[in-house]
Each structure stands twice: as structure tokens, then as C-alpha cells.
Amino acid sequence: MTTTPVEVDQSPPIPQVTDLNRFYWEAVAQHRLELLRCNVCGHYVHYPRPACATCQATDLAPEQISGRGTLYSYSVIMQASHPYFVDKIPYSIGIVAIEEEPAVHIPTALVECEEAELRCGMPVEVVFRAVTPTLTLPFFRPVR
Predict the structure, then answer these.
(1) Quick check: is 1 in a domain?
(2) Domain of 103: which CATH number?
(3) What is the predicted pLDDT for the residue at 4?
(4) Residues spanned by the domain of 47
(5) What distance in Å separates the CA atoms of residue 89 and residue 59, rounded to the nearest whole number?
(6) Fewer CB within a 10 Å sphere, N or C end of the chain?
(7) Four-point Cα dihedral 34, 38, 44, 48, nearest 10
(8) Confidence of residue 12 (pLDDT cuts 50, 70, 90)
């Protein structure tokens, strides 16, 4: 009996662009990070949603952030959740507390570091990578 090698899907899961998050994906495509910010209380809102979690105002607008923060938490992924990730395991994902408002967190993949280097509280910065010809994603790496 012979076996045929399993084809690995070379396309990652593609985020769904909506009217609410379109600003985010357009900024990422231009290598910028933008989050919604409340024009009433100044709180950053992430994930994009129609109202501020702090004051419930709906007067929100995209604002560019620095792309710097600290690693709040992380995990090393040992099992692929999608065919695209089969040849990428193990890989690290994390939660980044943004510099502008540390209570606001961005989930991300962590790049350019080994698992042994990862520490909660370490400074990180955004780096943008094209993962397909039409999809750029923000990743975070340690500040060197």
C-alpha cells in the first residue's frame, strides 16, 4: 500500500473585513497600526466595536498608535489548528499591552525570537509581513 503526501493549505485563514474593521485592515496594508479611540473619554477600543466599553459613547474614530508595547502573556502552539500552520509549529502567540494604554491588548503572533527569550513584560514592537499577495498582518517582535 502506498500513501500520498497530504497537501498543506498555503493560504492562512483570511480575516473578514467589515465596515467596522475596514480602517484597521487598510492601515495594516500600509504598515500602520490604528485602533479606534473614543472622542469622549479617550479610551482605545480593540477589537473594533461600535461603542466605548468605558463610557458607552459611540463617537469613535481610528487613531494611529506607536506599535510599541509589552508582552502581557504568551503561549507556544504545538498543534496546528488549520492546515496552513502544519509546517509552522511550534510557533508563539501572545497578547501585547499597547504603550498608549496598557489595559488595551492586541492578540498577535510573535516573531524573530526563540521561546526561551520570551518573558511577560518584555518590550515588543510591531513588524508587518505579507503572508499572501493580498494579505499583510501585524506581528510583534522583541525590541532589540
Answers:
(1) no
(2) 2.40.50
(3) 47
(4) 17-65
(5) 41
(6) N
(7) -60
(8) confident
